[in-house]
């Protein structure tokens, strides 16, 4: 078992643990958007299971990958719409993210859902999601200075999302560069990097859901 496979297994295992912790969101005191995020976590776990069991079926893998990407864009956008106060930022990022979604739907309608979402659309979406994410961090110092953010679900959710989006941007741009240079072992780099990212992000999200115990 090589290093990339070990890291990928750990990433998937941490995703399962995260989904288990996400059920804490159904606490009566938990915010509604935490429950919405739980549904996304459950879907991602099933999608990851499909990715493992259907490795020889390219179209199935592409379909599940597309479904996860679109679901993440919709859910993250919805949650940020609820947690930030700035109407200006909402007016900026909602139309931008809507353009990305409409572009994806257009491509699926033209080429079928087995058409893989292109790297540039993923990068654009991650850049756009960083706008409300950093806005939330700025607003903490305006609206929530006296609260302990280390015990707050939303703070850790935003932190994990920032790391996830930023890491994805770096990787996708780097992968595109490697493909242009025709560097070998690109698949090894893919599974190693994404496995590490998923492992770290899942740990952050586990911390977020653990804050809902109280």
What can you see in these coordinates?
This protein is an all-alpha fold and 214 residues long. It has one domain (3-213). Helices cover 80% and strands 0% of the residues. The chain contains 7 helices and no strands.
Helix percent reads over 70%
Mean pLDDT over the residues:
86
Strand pairing plus helix content: what structural class? mainly alpha
Alpha plus pi helix count:
7
Beta-sheet strand percentage? Answer: under 5%
Shape: globular
The biggest beta sheet reads: none
Rg over CA atoms:
18 Å
Low-pLDDT stretches are none
Total number of β-strand segments? 0
Overall tally of domains = 1
What order do the helices and strands follow?
HHHHHHH
Cα end-to-end separation = 40 Å
Describe this protein with a few key phrases.
single chain, 214 residues, mainly alpha, 7 helices
């Amino acid at each position: 078992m090589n290093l990339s496979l070990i890291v990928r297994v750990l990433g998937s295992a941490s995703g399962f643990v995260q989904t288990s912790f996400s059920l804490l969101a159904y606490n009566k005191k938990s915010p509604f958007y935490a429950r919405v995020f739980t549904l996304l976590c459950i879907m991602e776990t099933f999608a990851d299971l499909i990715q493992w069991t259907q490795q020889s079926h390219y179209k199935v893998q592409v379909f599940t990958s597309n479904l996860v990407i679109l679901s993440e864009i919709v859910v993250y956008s919805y949650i940020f719409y609820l947690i930030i106060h700035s109407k200006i930022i909402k007016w900026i990022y909602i139309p931008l993210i809507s353009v990305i979604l409409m572009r994806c739907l257009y491509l699926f309608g033209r080429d079928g859902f087995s058409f893989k979402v292109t790297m540039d659309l993923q990068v654009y979406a991650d850049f756009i999601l960083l706008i409300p994410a950093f806005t939330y961090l700025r607003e903490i110092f305006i609206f929530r200075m006296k609260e302990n953010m280390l015990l707050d679900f939303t703070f850790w959710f935003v932190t994990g999302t920032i790391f996830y989006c930023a890491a994805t941007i770096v990787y996708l741009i780097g992968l595109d560069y490697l493909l242009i240079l025709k560097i070998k072992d690109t698949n090894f780099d893919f599974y190693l990097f994404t496995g590490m990212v998923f492992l770290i992000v899942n740990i952050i999200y586990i911390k977020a859901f653990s804050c809902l115990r109280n």
